[in-house]
Each structure stands twice: as C-alpha cells, then as structure tokens.
Amino acid sequence: VVYIRKINAFLSFIKKDVTNITVRDIDDYMNSIYYIKTSKGEEKRSSSSYRQSVYSALNSFFEYLYSRDEINQNPMIGIDRPKNTDHVIRKALDLNDFNTILETVRNGVGSTAAKRKQKKWLKRDLLIMYLFMNTGMRKTALSEINVEDINFDSKILTVIDKRNKKLEYNITPELEKIILDWLDERENILKDNKEDALFISDKYNRISERAIYNLVQKYSEGALGYSISPHKLRASFVTIFYQASGCDIKATCEAVGHSNIATTSLYIVNKNDSRKTASNFMSSKLKV
C-alpha cells in the first residue's frame, strides 16, 4: 500500500504518460519532496530515509516497466540515490539572494527563445516572486488570490490561508506599482476573456500551484545555480524578518501568519501591525 501511494503521488505530480517520463522529470520530483506536508497540513523538511524510500519505490517501478518492455529505457539510471545526510544547501537565503532572483526574473533565463516567451509574463512572474519575498505567504494562498481581493483604497491585500484563515497584507507603494503593472498587462492578455484570478496561465485560467512551483524553481536555478521551492522562500522570509526585528519571535510569528496556539491566531486577526511592518521592511529592501 505504501509503495502504491508513493507511485501515485509521483504520477500525480508528473502528469505524463510513463513512456514520456524523463530523468529531468524524476529529478524535479525528487527535489520537490525535500518538503512534505504533515497530517496537520503543515510543511516540513523530509528525512533522508523518506527520500530514499521514494527513490527505491520509483526504482522498482521503472525496473518493472522496463522488464515488461513498457518503456525503452529506465530513466532511473540517471538518478543518484539520496545520501544518508541532506546534501541540499541549508542556509536561508538573504536579501542579496532575493534581489538576485528578482533581477533574473527581469532578465529571463534560458535560451533566447525561452526569454522571448517569458517576456510576455514578466510582470506576472515578477509580482509572484515579489509577493513571496515581501509577505512570506504560502503558494496555496498566493494561487487563490482574486483581483477583488486587492483594495487600493485601504492598501490591503486579503488572502485566505490554510484552514480558511483570512490574512491581510499591507500594500506598500512598491508593491502597488508592481500590482498595477501586472493588472494592465493582464487585461491586455485576457482581452475579452473573463477570469477572477489575479494570476492567470497561458490558457487564460487560474495559474496552478504546480506552475507557481515550477516558476520559483526556474528563476532560482537561473539566479543561484540551484533550485528552491516556494516554501524555501517563505522560510527565508521568516529568517530575514526575525533578524531584522531584533529576534522578536512573536512579531515574526504574526508577520508570517503562523498560528500554533489559539491566542496567536486571534491576535493576528485583530492586529496586523507586525505584518504591516514586515511588508514595509521588505519593500524597502527589494529592488524593482
């Protein structure tokens, strides 16, 4: 049962026929499971033993397909078994890393043709990356933002986080400019198509969480030489603001929207000073 669950999770992530799965697809998936969700829906770093168990399940799966002539070659040959200790870079990103990623979004990554395609979505991608860095919000909350959630009069962006918790983020002048730039471009792209979502795909519908994940990986790889996840951006936001706040863990907890205890959750709903402070601080440091 555990084996089947691991294979189903992999196939749901890849969304490809098994005959078309490549080494890069498997590598992307193995990178994605460095963070997993707990039974409470919270994200945490996975253990090396868990990643090894996933590797073993995938290895058995593709060996079976290859032995049955379902695939022409076994893509697992190009995948190294995860080591007993984490071999990913553990340090939190700093503001220099954040700004390097933003600069990479503006310049594009890959071939000339790839950069030309990215240019159409530059303002969307810049806003996505900036929101992660400026607020530390989760990718699920970001993907669910609608245009109507933006209140330019009160300078508030409202998002629905996990467990339907409403969070309000301050719209700084810098963030407002990036939002308005994207809204103008979004209108040109949509033309007569109707869509509530703030972030749209090339199919004119709401962008998926997986697409957002892939965007973060693409631009971080181009900027830093290694790919990171949206959760890594969130974790780095926490570290940066924690240090900037004089190691005020309560203010940081409020700013990122953590709610490990009921009183913290209630305080976030009623008072938003720390989240506003965090947004102002990040806006003053991020270059757009």
What's the story with the biggest beta sheet?
3 strands, antiparallel
Question: What's the helical proportion of residues?
Answer: 55-70%
What coarse outline follows from CA principal-axis ratios?
Answer: globular
**Structural class estimated from helices and strands:** mainly alpha
Mean pLDDT: 83
* Spatial extent as radius of gyration: 20 Å
Number of helices: 13
What is the spatial order of strands in the main beta sheet?
3-4-5
Please describe what this structure looks like.
- The structure is a single chain.
- The protein is mainly alpha-helical and 288 residues long.
- Helix content is 56%, strand content 7%.
- Strand 3 and strand 4 (156-161) form a beta hairpin.
- Helix 4 (95-107) crosses helix 9 (209-224), helix 10 runs antiparallel to helix 11 and helix 11 crosses helix 13.
- It is globular.
- The protein starts with a helix and ends with a helix.
In short:
With 288 residues, this protein is mainly alpha-helical.
Name the descriptors.
single chain, 288 residues, mainly alpha, 3-stranded antiparallel β-sheet, 13 helices, 5 strands, globular
Per-chain topology:
Layout: H1 2-14, H2 23-32, E1 35-37, E2 43-45, H3 48-67, H4 95-107, H5 112-119, H6 122-135, H7 139-143, E3 150-151, E4 156-161, E5 165-170, H8 173-190, H9 209-224, H10 230-244, H11 249-256, H12 262-270, H13 273-285
Antiparallel strand pairs: 1-2, 3-4, 4-5
Helix pairs in contact: 1-3, 4-6, 4-9, 6-8, 6-10, 10-11, 11-13
